[in-house]
Amino acid sequence: MRLSWAKGLALVGAALILCIGWCWGADVAAQEAFGAEANPTGDPVGGGPGYRAAVTEAAHRAATKAELLTALEQAVAGEVIFVQGAAEIDLTGEKSLVIPGGVTLASDRGRNGSAGALLFTNQLETMPLFATGGENVRVTGLRLRGPDQERRESAYVVPNSRGIHAAHPRLEVDNCELWGWSHAAILLTKGATPAHVHHNYIHHNQRSGLGYGVCLSEAEALIEANTFDWCRHAIAGTGAPGTSYEARYNLVLENASSHSFDMHGGADRKDGTDIAGDRILIHHNTFKAVSVPAVVIRGRPTEKAEIHHNWFLHTDAARAVVQTNATGNMQVYRNQFGPERVIR
């Protein structure tokens, strides 16, 4: 039987459409990215050498404690305080040093081989070392070392420390190294929405029962392209209403004493609810700490939790992502598991 020209053309067209669709789908599948290596920011995960958004021009320059304290008192919105890269400033005994609204506190981590200025304290009770004094504070290119890198046996028998505490909008912490803070390297509380924590190396914040890289309570943050290691929780939230975060392109290295990304629920707060924050988006992260779960959501988010396109080195998917105390409002899909990167 002979086909008409019209029918023949229709069949050829249909075949072409199927071929194009299949090829496009295969191309999309080939381009689909998982884990922190998907990093599209143009800057290295963890910051350091190659980080492009370095600050060099400054209204205030400091190389000593006295110069830094004077600059913090004098700086106004729109100005930069630059701490010389070779400086090592002992701030032991100081606490709640206010960075005025609109001010950038900077050094040169990763630039021309510099490790960045080191600001540190040896006083165990330092809650916090730095605090925001208004909106639009930026901390960039610095090393902030706290007084306690140990796990210890109890959260509160020994006094605690925090690196940076924000209660004002639009804090940005980028290209820094932060370690040795027994409670949290960065704490974001009510009023700090939104915040941006990116391209940092955050490690050895691991006090038993505490030990957070980034901790949120009634605040929202974008947490991206950081390297975490030796934290009890790299990211943690109290889960109180108003607490949300998006974590993307982060690398969690092998060492941890508890799960890496966390959101507390009502059972932890003992408030009679099962609420675990509002919105949790966890995608394109790499989790190498296989001795602990990667993500634990300890209740039910009021909006949603979506966990996708991560690479978990865990071979057991049920151990990698866990929801406890409640179920619902959580989707886990299109992640890779194990060294073989099996998609589930």
Descriptive overview:
Residues 1-30 have low confidence and may be disordered. It is globular, with a radius of gyration of 23 Å. The protein is an alpha/beta fold. It has one domain (35-343): 3 Solenoid (Pectate Lyase C-like), CATH 2.160.20. The longest helix has 27 residues, at 5-31. The chain has four helices and 31 strands. The strands form four sheets. The protein has an eleven-stranded parallel beta sheet with strand order 1-2-5-8-11-14-17-20-23-26-29, with helices on one face. An eleven-stranded mixed beta sheet has the order 3-6-9-12-15-18-21-24-27-30-31, with no helix packed on it. A six-stranded parallel beta sheet has the order 4-7-10-13-16-19. Helix 2 links the parallel strand 1 (60-62) and strand 2 (80-83).
